[in-house]
Design a protein that fits this description.
- Helix content is about 60%, strand content about 0%.
- It is built from 14 helices and no strands.
- It has helices spanning about 10-20, 45-50, 70-80, 85-95, 95-110, 115-130, 135-145, 155-165, 170-180, 190-200, 205-215, 225-235, 240-255, 255-275.
- Mean pLDDT is about 75; it is low at about 15-80.
Length: about 280
């Protein structure tokens, strides 16, 4: 459950999609010629780390709206198309963390440069050490999945932690998952619950699912079918992943009609909030 294969382009997609959606290029951009995709990457990690319907990293998305393509090549390329390599390199060398992270993406994808995971990691580290959350998250996923580096859960947690503390929703979910399974950190359901609440409130569907499961089974907290029903319904309700469907039914069956009515009011309030 939740420990799915990590694919590099997805790391960068999740790390940077929202951070750069509105970012201006470091210098006057020129539209580069269209390139034929070298390959199509899988999206297992995107689905495992974010769930269906999550369109950004920092907030929004989730079960309440937003759709994303399953073609990670297209999504990643859309993030970098307005940045010419030369001015990007100049900006990165001057210490701009956004440009450093973008350059890391280029090296990781082989986009305009020769693919080089070592250089990608180095540029991510430069940005991460400046406190840039998308780069911290990217490094965390690299270490968690052993992508371009030796797998190291403790190192993953070290980078997730500041990104999560800075409000990065995907880092919050992944840090919670490390606490949940005791990977690189002492297993702690209460700590997992704390970070899941943060990520779920930002629309991360997988966080909503795991949070609902913990409330329904009483992991790290007293059993709370009311909260379980809310979060599992937000994550898809009766249409959620089959592994959570029994939890959803048990939570619903534990509530009175009045309880279900109140929960539905809370659910609609959350959906409205997540749409904003």
């Amino acid at each position: 459950m939740f420990l799915l294969p990590v694919t590099l382009p997805v790391i960068l997609l999740l790390a940077c999609a929202s951070a750069f959606a509105q970012a201006p290029p470091p210098q006057e951009p020129q539209t580069p010629p269209k390139k034929k995709a070298k390959r199509v990457w899988t999206t297992d990690d995107m689905k495992g780390g974010a769930g269906k319907g999550v369109s950004t990293v920092g907030g929004g998305g989730g079960g309440s709206g937003g759709a994303e393509s399953d073609n990670s090549n297209d999504m990643l390329r859309s993030m970098v198309r307005d940045f010419e390599l030369a001015p990007l390199l100049v900006s990165a060398e001057r210490g701009n963390p956004e440009s450093q992270t973008q350059l890391g993406i280029r090296y990781a994808l082989g986009e305009g440069v020769k693919e080089d995971m070592q250089l990608a990691r180095q540029w991510f580290e430069k940005a991460a050490k400046q406190g840039f959350a998308p780069a911290q998250y990217a490094l965390g996923v690299m270490y968690e999945g052993g992508v371009g580096v030796e797998q190291n859960y403790q190192e993953a947690a070290r980078w997730y932690n500041p990104a999560a503390g800075g409000g990065h929703a995907y880092a919050q979910f992944r840090l919670a998952r490390l606490y949940f399974f005791g990977l690189g950190l002492p297993q702690s359901f209460p700590a997992a619950l704390t970070w899941l609440r943060e990520a779920a409130a930002r629309g991360i569907v997988r966080a909503q699912l795991l949070l609902g499961l913990m409330y329904e089974e009483g992991l790290g907290t007293q059993r709370n079918p009311f909260e379980a029903y809310i979060w599992l319904t937000l994550a898809g309700g009766i249409e959620i992943d089959v592994e959570f469907r029994d939890n959803w039914h048990r939570a619903k069956d534990s509530l009175t009609e009045d309880g279900i009515a109140e929960a539905k009011r809370r659910i609609e309030a959350w959906r409205e909030r997540l749409r904003k």
